[in-house]
Amino acid sequence: MEQLQITYLLRRGTEERWRRLWQEVAELRRNQFAVACQLAGITRVQVSLLQLLHGELLLVTVQMQEPQQAREVLASSQSPFARWLREQLQSLLGWDVLQVLADPPSDLLFTWQCEGEAGQRTRPVLKERRRETGMTNQEQVDLLKQGSATLWNTWREEHPDTAIELSGVDLREANLGEVNLAGADLSQANLREADLNNANLSKASLVGADLSGANLAGADLSDTDLHEANLSRAYLADANLAGANLCGATLYDAHLNWAMLEGALITPEQLSQATMESAPL
Q1: Interatomic CA distance for residues 152 and 76, integer angstroms
Q2: From CA 279, how far away is CA 51, in angstroms rounded?
Q3: Domain-located, residue 247
Q4: Domain shared by 79 and 186, yes or no
Q5: Are residues 9 and 93 in the same domain?
Q6: Pairwise CA distance, residues 172 & 192, whole Å
Q7: Do the Cβ atoms of 146 and 38 come closer than 8 Å?
């Protein structure tokens, strides 16, 4: 974990605007800010004002996992919140924050590192090669594993065109209640005993996925492809399976009480394997 400290002498007359900005982030945009930090690998942010004799000094402390990743994600993100924050900062700072986030060239003046009894010496700092970053499949998995539907759903709202490609991922026993996974590719995924109550899986691909023992109560599985999926012992009470493709799916001891099956591709043999009180067809 690395820590970055930023100091900035405020432009005259901007103190109140800085206070209003961070107040808005804290009170109205907290969830959006949390999602942005998660994606950038930032774990803690602290902003404070230091009163000086002839002005105010802004102190920002940021803890992050990988500084390069954080810089690149914050500079390249096109989410509505990221664009809004960059615009606010540019207005207050008076210069384009992207010029700094993009890692502009700089001249190293001095660095020192203790080498024990060998003495003290100055040495150049070698720049690491920049890596291309983005919302990778693993980052999507990591965000889901946070167990916060609010964080995930907020991120999806801000990135409606980003494909959710999670084929073959391991999300067994994950807390995914109420998450928006509509249209996601979850083929061959391990969702054994995952909590997906009231989740939106409409039009998702769950071909060959392992959903055995999963809680899918109230989930939206309309028009979902569940071809050859394992739904044994899955709890699907009140789930919407209208138009779903269940060809070849295993439904042994699955609970379909009051599930909607209108237009679903399912055989009488499959229904005989499941437990059901009333399932409208």
Answers
A1: 19
A2: 67
A3: yes
A4: no
A5: yes
A6: 5
A7: yes
- Total domains, the chain: 2
pLDDT tens string, the chain, 281 residues long: the values are 677 767 677 777 888 888 899 899 998 889 888 888 888 888 888 888 777 666 777 778 888 877 777 777 777 788 888 888 888 887 887 666 655 554 545 566 666 665 544 444 444 444 333 333 345 678 788 889 888 888 898 888 888 888 899 999 999 999 999 999 999 999 999 999 999 999 999 999 999 999 999 999 999 999 999 999 999 999 999 999 999 999 999 999 999 999 999 999 999 889 889 987 654 55
Q: How far is CA 204 from CA 6, 170, 234, in A?
A: 44, 17, 17
In a domain, 153, yes or no: no
Q: DSSP assignment, residue 116? A: G
Signed CA dihedral, 5, 11, 14, 17: sign only: negative
Last residue of a domain, one of 66, 101, 136: 101
- Per DSSP bridges, beta strands 55-64 and 42-52 are antiparallel
Residue 175 lies in a domain: yes
Tracing tokens 């009170």 back to the chain, one arrives at 27
Which of residues 101, 131, 153 is at a domain's end? Answer: 101
- For the CA atoms of 182, 35, 63, 135, what is the dihedral angle to 10 degrees? 40
Do 97 and 172 lie in a common domain? no
E strand or H helix at 37:
helix 30-40
The domain in which residue 227 lies consists of 164-281
- The residues near 243 (Cβ < 8 Å, ≥ 6 apart) are 222, 223, 262, 263, 264
